[in-house]
Specification:
The structure is a homohexamer.
Chain A lengths: L5 H4 L7 E15 L5 E9 L2 E7 L16 E11 L2 E11 L18 H13 L4 H12 L1 H9 L13 H19 L5 H10 L4 H4 E2 L5 E2 L1 H21 L6 H12 L16 H28 L22 H6 L3
Parallel strand pairs in A: 3-5
Antiparallel strand pairs in A: 1-2, 1-4, 2-3, 4-5, 6-7
């Protein structure tokens, strides 16, 4: 287990030695102005990232066999240079997978993943439409899918951008979907739930989260909407006698869930359930983005009743924390 | 009370005499090709409208003192001309307000207005924030406002375009708002409820519904957002010690509820409650528009599992009735 | 075979009896102003459409068993009413498929379909990339696909909106693609040819052309891009060891061929071949639309050197026929 | 009075001691690379801003009781570091309001504010419509409004962004409005003048100019259009028998003066006076922005006949100073 | 001279014979339902247009040699058919140019063209920049240009769409330009005046006004901006030693006067004079469009204090006549 | 001839003396932190740019008479400062034009300009339309035009931004135009070829390439479309009896070649040849931009099968090199 995190180092004495695990985010050989060569590393864990330098390239205590994306065990000391912390690396070796929990190295949901998963499964088991139920069961029965569904972030940057973020977002949506379905009796609740569970399934292929969060090349070329439709289509094809019209509606929910062509949905929502899915998906993402923004504002030392800066992901608007602002009046 | 409606006349024998009340939607003198003058009327009731003709302009049984917007009692007979029904008017007089219920003459909510109103009031009484509660109580205590709030349509054409439509829309939103507030604990539920009750208040000034649904001149020049802000500001100004920050947030909810500058909101939603209000308002309007569209499609004789035509109010997309379409597969 | 077409009837004597085959585009019972019931039909063939009326509903010579979409044999006479031709129907019966060639009843390519098909096949056989070649061979080996590919229009209205239009458009693109591939050596010619053959494959599912040209419900909900990707994915899945990266590129070509998100492509072209496909597809459609517009202008009696009206499908611009205009100067 | 300005310091000998007043724009404790703590200040006056450092945090000659936004008296010396001037602060104390003129600390109009104000008042007194005249008199009779109207900038950054900028802009508009009203006899000159005086009134609430130019939180949430309408509505409500239609038109002028929904006006100009107000307001702002841009270009050492850089506030176009460019040809 | 206008005919007895001159706007042979051939004409004068019919095609009193665009003398009588007036033509011959004033046949400015022209000339003579003065004198010295400048409409439909409309618009702009130049001393008044005189010069080539108002083919292909630049460039090329920079600025004023790329200006205004020209041109066009709209509203029988319909040329907004509306309150 | 280029210096020993020619891109006097004055130069050649410093301003071996835009011969040595190379200048003098080839100092086409020019000329000589042929011959017969046409870049930054880039782009388009003209028999091939040769002619006036690539002031104010039309119009005016309609079409091709108003074309393409010109011009520019982007990606050390970064000139999309990516799979 990892016990020293990057945010801890700010409080360290300069030069004090310590050991810890990091993810290698970048690795490059460079030279100083006086032409002294060194190895420059960007090391990360779930709390942030840090520049590290190896000054003696031939030192046998520095492994040669590691690359960008590997987890390494490092011994060294931190010091401040130009107001930024820098790590002097004395020893470095590749770590074995078992030595460290990947969730220590990347930001990760604050919820209990097992509990979230049980929430997802209980929604699936509550379906009364037998075709939709066997579809969802078939999708989640695939161990590779289930594992990825538990781990994937919901996005690279905009909202829920942490391990487990996809599952956290879907479970929040399931709760919201139940409430909206109860409010509008014309809705087919089972179809809506199915749409919620499957709408972002393609993200498990579009995104990679081994070495920081990034898009796969296939993800950039095809997109999670198409990748999700493909996964679902292949599952349906393997289910005997799945009703063709129901298949069309399930695929339509995935295709249209971004709500506008210019957001990458090739079709607008044309059935009530697709309309609701688009609204609650967008609302939940924005509510989470607002929450993250207030937390970031606090981290950056703003008073709780100040406006945030302009938020790119929310059309450059500024945001205000209602409760903190009202509190500030009392 | 009115007992014969325009939609009933299609089943009538041509030439059979009847009496009924109508709203005068237009009144114009014209002449036939052979230069015979006649009085042309457009008469309406809650089921539709009809062309009527008075052929003997000097007949003493035809009143002279009525205008567009008046309610009249008519005696005459219907016949078909060029596949359209036309009314030959034999007698006509202005009706007294007591003779007929205005809700018979304009389309009107199918819900019980008294029950809707009780729903609204019970939401108001459930508030725990004393300032918001006294604000809403003060607004609804004004009898002119309360009366208009019960009667106003929510729009001229797009959604809930019937008497009581505003109240029906708000009560639906209150139910939805409770659910969303329960889902996101960071929301100030009382502020959200207040926003729901007040967001379209200005429509009681922007719209006129005496003689068909139309905009007032003041409504066109100022808009319901500004008109609602004005009503609320004046109410707040009369409440002692209303907290200034809370006032700002309430006004911000009204100003921003259309969600985009190009939809007439001069500000984007910047607090979580304003974001939610914008989403549920838009969702409820679109859910209602979809429902109306399916009903219209049925009225026009389409099969229940056909697509509707392109719907202007929903970005020209076509719609499909999920349940009917799945039903059609069985 | 059909020997009298709708455009021929304008030259007929009023009241002269004739026999011919038509497609039933609409069928409705109506009544005259004097309440006389009749059967109203819209009948079509490849040259246009015509209103027909059956006055004696009980006449045994009028079949009861036909519907919208059926081909019928009619005996009757034409006369002019209000400057429009109308058909008085005396006898009517459903036709057997063998009695008439469907291409007589819907507009149809002026090219020889067999020759177009040979052009397509020779392009496929010319591929040197074995994987792409077996992919295209597998797609076209499916008899249902091959049959539909020969028949489908390329669009409902905008360009190549006739039977065989899809094939005609693809064969024109194949010629253009060869030329562009010869010009830019960096292009993978086989991938480009594959993209041309497959880009609109989904139209065989999106469109229906039995009874006029229309979209299927599935087509409206999913779109031809998704439907084409699905057909290709399933074909690839059945081919052993198809290279995954090549699969991604083929799908990307289909997904991105509309060139912009707002035109329904969920991805922009990101490889040179996809860029070229988007350009030549758009260019060929617009060249065809211009040609059709000049023909329409001529049919409407405009002088060859006049501007056309504003063309909706070309951003409302007017068009000018270069050659005719220059000719007009001599 | 302040006699040494930031722009003067560039010509100073390094290390020479001086005293002056500054506005504290930022105050933060920091540490050097070698962990030596210091107090970092951003100090401003009307000519620019400067970084200052206090190295001995415990020095009793450095006051503890000052904050961002305070005016301070400083004793210190300037030196150049990395090509930028830096101030070493030896003594610092809060200044009393009477010691320094705020206009020395923030950029300020180059016109005589008293003369501008007389110009505004003489426009008001020239009105012949008694209702508009008493409205404007009532607004300007409020001492808090009058004081703020004299001081407020017209914007934070784009145009007239200096103390007195609002008044300067309005007085320029009054001159222009008279000319346009004389040109178009259909205009109601008094209504136009009233619109000019009131259109940006809300800026006295939307902006804060005590400590640099910034938006208030209320300003960000409500905007100056709504804030101005509110001030005017409350003034009108206190005037007996103000004609309702005239009130509507005055409010419409304020609401619509940005000319487009996407610029934050919830209504488009619908009367000739509102159209003119929108045009002259926009023109005057752009003429001023061009002038400022030419001055900035000169300050940055460009030749007078060069193009400016791309100007963000003018759709990224470059600008050319007509007179200077033609001069350059002679 | 023409003494009976189309608007006069509404008051005529049906069948009463009269003689008058008309412009032939369309000429087509047609047949009735009963196949009786007739000649259908659309005849126009400055007050409107009217359908005319010639029933006896062989009648020697009906000339054969006239075409669309000719002026004809007609003898006939009017009668009402389906509520529209129709002219029965008994005699018809081509008129000689001298028989009728073309301004009787097309709508035409209500101002005195000679006075407008003197206004234009006096502006030109007031210039102090000798180069700009000789440029304008050279342009207006061309008799074909001068004649067309006096006659041309300013647009086909949107504003000043009548004979002399271009000149009327320019003279109004000259007055406005003087006022704005007096207000902003930084403006080069002579350059602005030059821009006003030349900005729409190309309309004399873009538009045709012999037979109704229409675009020429060259006008559609090149546009009045390019056509005006061409006329001015050729004039400048013939002037010895015209300063090249001044030439560039004059051309830039013409090129940029629409103010936005999407309005057909290939360049944005980059000098103060071009900015002002764009604003006053747009303002004057919109003021005129508002005035026309109020007149049209009155003609259509709306009360003076009603809103107009939605005006396409003004972004679909409704308009209100300030003075009439305030009057309505008294 | 120049034998040491800026990219060579990275491999040099620090401090080793060398001589070379450079273009002076900027020249400014500055001072160090310790107030030591020095002359700062930005020097460029076709491989890049470099900062140079002259420390002894009075040294007689440093010429005083050079300016931005001059070519200079420099003697000095390079060293690394803060990871960037810097040049210490010991001697500097203005170079004579004959000493160095300008193409060594600016990036330049990799094709043989003489061969490209022969390609252009042979296209011109192949025309069969005598009017178009004499037009192109007349344009290219002007030695100043011909010289500039050989040298000009096609753009400042986006595509073909190197000496000879315009000619290289045009010759590529000529090849493509022949192919497209062969494919669509309705095209007037000679008109298309003419459009290709002339469409960007104005760039020889819009751009300057003496001292780096930049826009001229006239170019910014008028644009290459207008400047090209002007050059062509003047050439046509000098040709006896050039057919007016043909002139209109040639000008229309130039005016409309950007394809959209918002891209600076004041007219949309309205003839088939203009449509094709717009498509192939855009396609060739984008194909070249893709190629440059792949080269840049390689230069920056990306693996050949990685995606590029987001490319601003291609709507911020990422790009993938098809061949390299497929290669990476083998």
């Amino acid at each position: 287990m990892k016990d020293i995190y990057i945010t801890d180092l700010a409080a360290f004495d300069e030069g004090k030695l310590f050991n810890s695990f990091f993810l290698v985010l970048a690795k490059q050989q460079r030279a100083t102005k006086t032409n002294k060569p060194y190895l420059n590393l960007i090391l990360g864990d779930k709390t942030g990232q840090l520049e590290g330098r190896v000054w003696d390239l031939g030192d046998p205590r520095i492994a040669k066999d590691f690359e960008r994306g590997d987890i390494v065990k490092v011994r060294g000391s931190a010091s401040r240079f130009d107001d930024r912390l820098q790590l002097k690396v004395d020893q470095l070796r590749k770590a074995a997978p078992a030595e460290v929990d990947k969730t220590d190295l990347l930001p990760s949901t604050t919820y209990d993943v097992a509990a979230l998963w049980r929430g997802l499964e209980s929604s699936v088991q509550s379906l009364t439409n037998p075709d939709l139920k066997r579809l969802l069961n078939a999708v989640l029965a695939d161990p590779a899918i289930a594992q990825a569904y538990r781990e994937a972030p919901a996005a690279r940057q905009l909202h829920h951008a942490w391990l487990g973020g996809l599952l956290e977002h879907v479970v929040s949506l399931l709760g919201l979907a139940e409430k909206v379905a109860a409010h509008y009796p014309q809705l087919d609740r089972d179809l809506l739930v199915t749409g919620v569970v499957l709408h972002d399934l393609g993200k498990i292929r579009e995104l990679a989260w081994e070495t920081g969060f990034d898009y796969t090349v296939e993800g950039v070329l095809l997109g999670h909407i198409q990748m999700g439709v493909d996964l679902v289509e292949k599952t349906i094809a393997a289910l005997p006698d799945f009703p063709p019209r129901l298949r069309t509606l399930v695929l339509h929910m995935i295709l249209s869930h971004h709500g506008k062509l210019e957001f990458g949905s090739p079709k607008l929502p044309m059935i009530p359930e697709a309309l609701v899915l688009n609204f609650i998906d967008d609302l939940d993402a924005k509510m989470q983005a607002m929450k993250s923004e207030f937390e970031k504002s606090a981290r950056e030392g703003k008073a709780p009743d100040e406006l945030t800066g302009k938020v790119w992901a929310l059309d450059n608007r500024q945001l205000l924390n209602t409760k903190a602002w009202l509190e500030g009046e009392k």
